[in-house]
Amino acid sequence: MKQAMERDVTKRQWYYRGSLKSCNYSCSYCPFAKRTCSRRSIQADREAFFRFTGRMLQQQKGGAVQIVPYGEALIHPYYWEGLAALSRSPVIDAVGAQSNFSFPTEEMLSVYREHGGELKKLRLWGTFHPEMISAEQFARHCRFLTEQKISYCVGAVGVPEYLEQIRMLRKALPDSVYLWINKMDGLGRRYTEAELEAFAEIDGYFRQELKHYRAELTACADSRFVEADGMMRRCNISRENIGNFYEDSVESKKEELSGCKRKTCSCYLAYCNRRDAVAPFFRPYPAFRIPVYPKAVFFDIDGTLVPEGLRRIPEHTARGLLRLSVRCEIYLATSLPLEAAKRKLSSVWHVFRGGVFANGARWQTQSQEKGSLDVILPMEAGWLTGIKEKQKAYGFKVHVYRKKADIYKVTLYFHRVRRGIQMPEQKQKELSDALKIPDSCRILWEGNCMQITKQGTGKLAGILEICRAMGYRREDVTAVGDSLNDREMVEYFS
Length: 494
Hints:
By secondary structure, the protein is an alpha/beta fold. The chain has helices spanning 39-56, 77-87, 105-114, 135-147, 163-172, 193-202, 206-209, 253-257, 315-327, 338-344, 387-394, 425-434, 459-470, 484-493; strands at 12-17, 21-22, 63-67, 70-71, 92-99, 122-128, 151-157, 179-182, 213-214, 223-227, 232-233, 264-265, 296-299, 329-333, 352-357, 362-367, 371-376, 396-403, 406-414, 441-446, 449-454, 477-480. The protein has 14 helices and 22 strands. The chain is elongated, with a radius of gyration of 25 Å.
């Protein structure tokens, strides 16, 4: 089954930032507000950009290219000319840029077309600045792009005093256009709960903007950030250079072995590369923040749908799931047993079409076309005989999960280890040996919790069974989670 669903995921996200450091807007929160450039500076930026596009067109490993300027680039025709050239490459799937959408829309699209640009490959990341333009004026630009069948998203800085204008824009935009909210770094205080709720109502991912993701190279998608002089890093905030784009070999030994050297992914651009952040809903190229809705989405619960410390799903998350369920089928993939999952998600339980429970030891599907299935994978449970005698000695509580007479999961909670603290590996082995758990069982540790199921179970294994039952291909599916237990399924479908 796994081999049948294999697919190519080798394509790459390229970011380019030229020497241009000017903007036609004067937003109070921007360091590049109303800066002007000399003709010489503009010419230098033009030459640097065409040098980049020329080299980019020689690449065998294409993917997607996004321009992420300091200031506003798309008011300059040469950027449209370069994007058009890139779009003609057979190995480049998508091209685009960040912009405040102030460019003369018809004129610049004409430049793009005149130079052979493919509209189906164009992706625009628009930013709404209420200090400079009204919601209606901005929406007018967006409607024209929609009419031209150009893919785009819209974003705004989460300035509390501009909340009503952002709400007005949300109402004016087509439902298919994603409007994301960026946290305001210069706010000088924490957002109030009312502000958080209001912005999360517009952008279901807003609370993720407030997280500081621990920098981890293995969690990042394949990406390269190129400066005007060719200096290359993995992303715009990485502290390690990985070579020069204009050298003979981009794929150097130094690049392969280099790390990140950051402690956190603190930038709205950087975490766009992370498979464990927004990436699952914005594949194959999350840099553009344009959702590609799959046929089915599998969600982890604890830490994903239900934040740590809460017993129920937050209202803003519930509303987001309701909206998503209109576009695709949604399922669960959790280590929780079915009954516990139902309690935590009681307000939205009806929108799920089944899921994987108990770390894959139980899975369900509900479909009008294909009917309903409820499958458990019973485990060998002879070792449970005499388990009560060992509870006092080792300090644990036992939860046994059954369907009729069949046991499909056992959970041991070691109360002498503080909750949330991972049991040391040596101690894990000692306890497994002492309890005489057979090799036919799979053991998964999460903090102070030992979860035992049948060997061969797991979230990914359960999802693949549902895919087989429902006829989903690998490219039809997305998985979302936040922990090491979720990594296998997230990476498989990323």
